[in-house]
Structure formats: C-alpha cells, structure tokens
Amino acid sequence: MIQRPKYMSFLEEWKNHQIIKAVSCIRRCGKSTIFDLFREKLLSEGVKPEQIIFLDEIQHVKQYEKAVNSLFTKKNTYVYMICA
Fold first, then answer.
1. Which of 38, 44, 57, 76 has the most beta carbons within 10 angstroms of its beta carbon?
2. How far apart are CA 21 and CA 33, in angstroms?
3. Helix (H) / strand (E) containing 53
4. Which domain holds residue 58?
5. What's the predicted TM-score (pTM) here?
6. Is 51 in contact with 43 (CB distance < 8 Å)?
7. pLDDT the model gives residue 7
C-alpha cells in the first residue's frame, strides 16, 4: 500500500476538531485507501472501532445529510466522508 504522508498529516491535524471530515476527488485516486490507512492509525492509537465511521460514496444516498448529522451528534465519534 502506498503511504500518503501529506494526506495523513492533514487528517491528523484535524482529527480532534468537531467537524465532519470529507474527501472529494476524482474516481479511483485512492480516497478509500487514505481512509483505510488513517483508520489503522486511529486503531493503533487506541480508538475503538465503533468510534470510527467512514461513509463511502455517501452522495448516492438520498438525504444523506440527515444521516450524517445524526452520526455527528454521537460523542467521541470520528465521522469521515468519501465523495467522488
């Protein structure tokens, strides 16, 4: 797996900010891979799997904003979105 230190650094910088993190880019550029790498990093730091929520291609879900907002209200939860 190709390491992506620049993207990992960005996600790390914003990790503890109470915002939803979203990555949007062209298809097949490695967005999901970046989040897989970051998920592994969070787990290695002691974050529980149930605290990590990755929403892949969420833009295809009708009214996804409501689902995202409901997840965002959970305490100690990391919400990340991947959009093409």
1. 38
2. 15
3. strand 52-56
4. 5-83
5. 0.77
6. no
7. 85
What's the CA angle centered on 19, arms 12 and 40, to 5 degrees? Answer: 35
Number of domains in the chain: 1
Q: How far apart are CA 46 and CA 25, in angstroms?
A: 29
Burial (Cβ within 10 Å: 0-12, 13-18, ≥19) of residue 39: middle
Chain segment 39-73, per-residue pLDDT in tens: 999 999 999 998 888 888 888 888 888 888 888 78
Answer for the pair 51, 80: CB distance below 8 angstroms, yes or no: no
Among candidate residues 18, 19, 27, 15, the one with its CA nearest the CA of residue 60: 27
